Structures are given as structure tokens and as C-alpha cells.
Amino acid sequence: MRDYYDALNDLLSNALSTQDIEEVPLEQAVGHILAKDLLVQYPAPQFDNSAMDGYAVNDMQRLTWEVIGTIAAGDESAQFDLKPGQAVRILTGAGMPKHCDSVIQQELVERDGDRIRIKEAFAAGKNIRYMGEELQQGEVLLDANRAITPAAIGLLASQGYATVPCFAKLKLTVFSTGDELTPLGQALAINQIYDSNRPMLLSFLKRYRFLEISSGGAIEDKLETLKTRISEAASTQDVLIFTGGASVGEKDYLKQALEELGEIEHWKLAIKPGKPFGWGKVGTNTKVFLLPGNPVASYATTLLLALPAMKRIAGVSIDKAKPFSFKAKAAFDISQNKSIRRDFRRGRLVNNEEGLWVELLSTQDSHMLSGISYGDVLVEIPPQADVKTAQLLNVYPLAGALD
Ligand SMILES: Nc1nc2c(c(=O)[nH]1)N[C@H]1C(S)=C(S)[C@@H](COP(=O)(O)OP(=O)(O)OC[C@H]3O[C@@H](n4cnc5c(N)ncnc54)[C@H](O)[C@@H]3O)O[C@H]1N2
Ligand code: MOO
Fold first, then answer.
1. Model-level pTM?
2. Cis peptide before 25 (omega within 30 of 0)
3. What is the predicted pLDDT for the residue at 211?
4. C-alpha 294 to ligand 2 mean position (Å)
5. Of the CATH numbers 3.40.50.720, 3.40.50.150, 3.40.980.10, 1.20.120.80, which one belongs to the domain with range 4-19+169-321?
6. Exposed, middle or buried, 16 (CB in 10 Å: 0-12/13-18/19+)?
7. Whose CA is nearest to atom 16 of ligand 1?
């Protein structure tokens, strides 16, 4: 069976990125994938300006100045040309007068009519934000192939970008499969369960604005029905996600359906949970992910594999498409680990004076949704590797758990 990182690299390096580009109004662009490098249009700051409410002064040898006017943000400032001993009242963000040596913040100043006084000599060049000190015209402001963050919206607005070139959204449909699934709001018949995977995965993926998501509903375990639904959806969608029916039971028809309509590119990984994860395609344009039915396995394979692959297809660079992880110290130990599968257990972070620790939740089986709901992270335990207390382990944050 294939290792997780091998499968992830395969998915990321063989994803055919979308090519369609559209201009998206800035206010709607958060979460979309930037399709072109955008350049600095104006130096930042655009003009020398004051970092403080205070007094712009000429000649730092002295302790007193005469105030000859006021400049507020947005005011014309060049008409003030300071001579030694002159100052102007200046507000934060206002353009600088000519021949200003420093801005002295008002807390240090005593004012008496038109005279200001300070107690100790003040340094030159203070509290002035100089034109171009942050960004210079023509440099790359934001490089392509990244999701646009709220902060990047601010940066783009500051540079006057009213629209941004973004890759078209990926059209995704999420289906659940299984004769045992009962829609919410209906009473459960004997040995039936509610469909928890679909609302969970839809809610998870709706956080990503580069996806245009629809729900395909729950499909019965029938080969012909599955094939019909796959063909219909593949004619309009870029990506299809199915949960359930991916394993080896006689009602697990998804692999067969995909094989008959398209191609299975890979099936089965040495990971826990998520062993029966697979992917393939229908035609040249529709990627299909088969997620295991066990709820925790469906969540973990979305986080670790399907979402990174969709980011890549949507135009994100390989580096940025990889799921984010960081290190935490194990608050537990594991000995005689014989598992050949890379294990991603549910963990909770504890931040104390000795650093960041991760402890394991007690509900670890892949049908136990409480573990993933009460957890903060998936804790990576490499195959056949023992873990000592305080050893650093990779952890992958769960969607929304650290917000
Ligand atoms: N003989 C073997 N049996 C199983 C293997 C195996 O390798 N050999 N793998 C196990 C693993 S690991 C997993 S994970 C599951 C995955 O099976 P499927 O993808 O075929 O999923 P189902 O059999 O349809 O369902 C598994 C489990 O999950 C429940 N389920 C399914 N869909 C939903 C849903 N939308 N919401 C909530 N719960 C759902 C379903 O009722 C089952 O309990 O196979 C193991 N078996
Ligand atoms: O590996 Mo399965 O995906 O856990 O229960």
C-alpha cells in the first residue's frame, strides 16, 4: 500500500490546473485563487507623511519653535516651507511640509499660543513615514497561485485594484452513498443511520471560496444508479466527491462504477483512518475522489488529500496546496507500534509554560465523530515508529478548531 506523502505528491504534481481566468470585483475576491502576478502601482507610502499627531519641526538643535499652521490628513502640505525655528501642527497621515526634520509627538510638547516647547532635544528623522519605504512601483505586490486572504484584499485596495484576475471557481458536487442513510428530519428505521458525512464535508468545504459547491444528495447502493449520477454530474462538474462504498464489501460499487465510466488512478493508501481512499477521473475534465464511509476517515482524507488536490486543480502552487502542519510535543507515549499505516489520530492542544503539547482523545476509532469534533488537530504517528513523551510530532489543524 502506498504512503500518504507519496500519494499527496502524486495528486499535487499530476493535477491539471484550471486555465480560465475571470476579473472578480475586489470585495468578492477573498478566497479566490489569484491567476496573475499583480504589480505595485503606487509606491507605499505614496508620499512622505506623519506617523503621529504632533508637530513637524525644522532644526533639531533647539527646544522651542513657532507654529505657523496646521496640516491634517488629506490637506495640501507643500505650501508650508519651514525655516529654522518654525513648526506646523500635523496629524497622523498628513503630508509633510517642506524642510521638516522630525515630527515630535504631542505628548512631549507644551504649547503656549503659537509657541511650542520640549524638555529634551529630539532626534532628526523621527515619526516620518517615507515615500516608497515599504513598496516600490513595478515590484511584485502579490504573486499568483495563492488564495487571496482578507489582508491581501486590504493590500490590493490600498493599491487601487478594483478587480482582480482569478482562476474560475471549481465546480464540486459532494455525494454520500449507502442504503442505510436516512435524511435529517425523518425518523430512523431499524439499523439505519443519519447521513452525517455530507453535511460535515459540505460545511468544511464551504469555507473555501474557490469552490462552487453543490450537494448531490444520498445515493442508494446500486451500480446503475451510481453510474447514472456520476455521468450526469461529470457533464457539468470539475470535481465529484463520494463518501461510502469505497471499500471491498459487495455493495461497495463506486470503484466499479468509476472504472466503467472513466478511470481509477489510484485506490488504497497505508493511512489510518482512510485506507480505502481512491481517486480517478471521468473524461479529461472531471476528477473524482472516493472517500471512505467511516465519518472520521471521510473527514481526514478530505483534509489531507482531496482538499489539497482541489486547491492545486484550482490553480494554487504545489507548496501552498499542501496541508499546513506544525509541531507539538507528545503528551503520551506509544511503544511497540507495529502498524504499517501512517496514523492520523485525533488530538487536543495544550499550551503551557513548557510549550505546545498534544494529547490524544479517548475516542479514536474512525466511526467516532466525537473524537474529531472535540479535537483540535490530527496527530501524525509514522508507521512502525514508537513515540516518547515530549517528542515533537507533526499535527494538522482541523477546520475551524483553531479560529
Ligand atoms: N474486509 C474489509 N472491510 C473493510 C475494510 C477493509 O480493508 N477490508 N476497510 C475498512 C475501512 S478502513 C473503512 S474506512 C471502511 C470504508 O468502507 P466504505 O468506504 O465502503 O464505506 P461503507 O462501507 O459504505 O461505510 C462504512 C461505515 O461508514 C458509515 N457511513 C457511510 N456513509 C456515511 C454517511 N454519509 N454518514 C454517516 N456514516 C456513514 C456506514 O454506515 C459504515 O458504518 O470499510 C472498512 N471495512
Ligand atoms: O481506515 Mo478506515 O478509513 O479507518 O476506518
1. 0.94
2. no
3. 98
4. 6
5. 3.40.980.10
6. exposed
7. 292
